[in-house]
Amino acid sequence: MTKRTITVIPGDGIGPSIIDSALKILDKAGCNFDYEFADAGLVALEKHGELVPQRTLDLIEKNRITLKGPLTTPVGEGFTSINVSLRKQFSLYANVRPVLSFKGTQARYDNIDIITVRENTEGMYSGLGQTVSDDGATAEATSIITRQGAEQITTFAYELARKEGRKKVTIVHKANIMKSTSGLFLKVAREVSQRYPDIETEEMIVDATCMKLVMSPEIFDVIVTTNLFGDILSDLCAGLVGGLGMAPGANIGSDAAIFEAVHGSAPDIAGKNLANPTSVVLASIQMLEYLGMSDKAELIRNAITAVIEEGDRTTRDLGGTHGTTDFTQAVIERLS
């Protein structure tokens, strides 16, 4: 069988250690990948003088599939978010953030199974038109929603729901106040929903969504929303299952995809063998499913589930006392 080559961006802080864990687990599961490594973030800035070197862009372009650790964008003027830049560069319009309850995480809930589908390139989060007046008294930013973008992301959400056997899609908006931008998104989403009579559609204002996610999260199945709302809601959902260490993310376009840990680079614990690699391992499971390797994805998911439930070699954020390498080895042993 021809090997698939994956672009791997280890990232900053704890990134290299958790990416190493994910690759060892993928190899043990018999995924038969080749890897081409690339720099981005602070590591790239120090080594190459730029946050995303051309070689990294070329490798993403060539291989079309990327597994990425957390990246740090320096604070200050002149530095654009690396993740936002990559999403725009490769038209990765869909951000897919599933959260699932795992026994043993000490999370508040044990029945969560929600997918947040977030438009990834438009809206307020895209950073368009950001200006500050010369006297520093006024700041502005521009939010643009297009019919094409709204239709593309809502269609993606309904197709995903149908493929995954999901029963309901909740369209989250703020059209009662943001009548132009959020209003257009809701209007288009309603039109798209008519094409999927087999799937229940619910509309919900974003602030009510936050409240209901905390009070009754079991009522949600698939959420589809705009860029900024999706960024906030997906982190809220991660909190329902134990935090960002338990939440993977996929950025998907028409012919390329980047799979990532969604948490930060945690420089305070970098190199200390303390990080929980679950987020990026779950992202690698998303990658396998995207590539049609569902059998390998299920194999790894079952191993992760068993190790977390047993609790003998889990990391501190999961209530354990072990480190990255012990946790990784426990998953590898399960795969054996």
TrEMBL record:
Residues 5-331 form the Isopropylmalate dehydrogenase-like domain. Its EC number is 1.1.1.41, 1.1.1.85. SUPFAM superfamilies: Isocitrate/Isopropylmalate dehydrogenase-like (SSF53659). Keywords: Oxidoreductase. Signal peptide: none annotated. Pfam families: Iso_dh. The keyword 4Fe-4S does not apply. It is an enzyme of class 1 (oxidoreductase). GO terms for molecular function: 3-isopropylmalate dehydrogenase activity; isocitrate dehydrogenase (NAD+) activity; magnesium ion binding; NAD binding. It comes from the Bacteria. GO terms for biological process: isocitrate metabolic process; tricarboxylic acid cycle. Belongs to the isocitrate and isopropylmalate dehydrogenases family. This is Isocitrate dehydrogenase NAD-dependent.
